[in-house]
Amino acid sequence: MKHATNQGQNRVLRPLWWNAAAGRDGALEMIDQTRLPSELVTITCTTAAQVWEAIKQLRVRGAPAIGVAAAYGIVVGLDEAAPTDANWRVEMDKVCDFLATSRPTAVNLFWAIERMRRKGASLTVKSWADARAALLTEAHAIRDEDAAMCRAIGGFGQHLIPDGGGVLTHCNAGALATSEYGTALALMYAAHEKGRRFKVFVDETRPLLQGARLTAWELQRAGIDATLICDNMAAVVMREKKVNAVVTGADRIAANGDTANKIGTYGVAVLASAHGIPFYVAAPSSTFDLSIPDGSAIPIEYRDPAEVRRIGERTVAPEDIACYTPAFDVTPATLIAGIVTEKGLISPVSESAIRRMLAGAAQPSP
Ligand code: MRU
Q1: Omega before 83 cis (within 30°)?
Q2: Total domain count, the chain
Q3: Are residues 142 and 275 in the same domain?
Q4: Which residue range is the domain that position 73 belongs to?
């Protein structure tokens, strides 16, 4: 494995960070997740176009992580534009609008951009230098709060991981998909830290193999018992009673609890229901979009057909075959046994329970 990053084996796994010593005024650095697990390589972004490309190409991916990337990306884009004291607000609007076009489904991206815009609008400073300092502080706060939410999600959800049992997950909702620690995988990390022993079945997650490449790598690195399966094996491991619970992350949760997540999640939820296995979602409050009533209004990203025709670099289908390419699907709330948030577990899932939980203070962790 090639190591060219500050992520040593024993350090907390973080997919992105601000490096004050990079570039002219500091820069956004991240693990290039497209190269994992064979190479652990850091890339440095000093332009808005580089941040946009990194999000679009899934060098940084996972709903919370792309929100954090966009927050830092706004500072990067403004540094690149070198605005004056008079025009930084205009330049900031342009960078925000641009980064918002990178990917459509994960609401955390728009949530973070809106939060940065609100911070910018609230500033009464006279100089761009002071505004920049405040915006960078806000981006750090978004990162740090996300890390804290992930730890809290782990605390609230760890009891759902049964000692001696099995759990199945889809895609990657781990440290790599957040600031650190993850959402779905946070439950597993927290249960593991409590000394519980369990096995995780990791769906490979075609077409881009986030399960095989990222979740398998993360869990192995953490010393958690993980078994990789092809997506079409999920039904069998459930029928063989190897799975006691399914836990996934989310990209956007509508007011009624309908949840968009990586393509294939809906199928896993249907299978879990057919086998009487509880299906849980783990997500911070920044993943909820209470402005839309149900999942039918969630914008779904469609990607390049080449990603379906290929496995890694290798084309495995006729070059010109038509492909269907949704990157996400929506699991109806009726199939979800509970949603673990940083404030507590929402179960059963209903619009009123969601609104109550998000509006309230955190419950004591079990
Ligand atoms: O296309 P990706 O890799 O960004 O999709 C990621 C997922 O679907 C994750 O499950 C989701 O963003 C939750 S991450 C905590």
Answers
A1: no
A2: 2
A3: no
A4: 2-150
